[in-house]
Amino acid sequence: MDIPVALARRAAQVAAEGGFAADFDGVVTSPCISVCRMTADRSHCQGCFRTLEELRAWGKADAATRRVIWAALLERAGVAHPAQVVSS
Question: What global pTM score does this model have?
Answer without folding.
Answer: 0.92
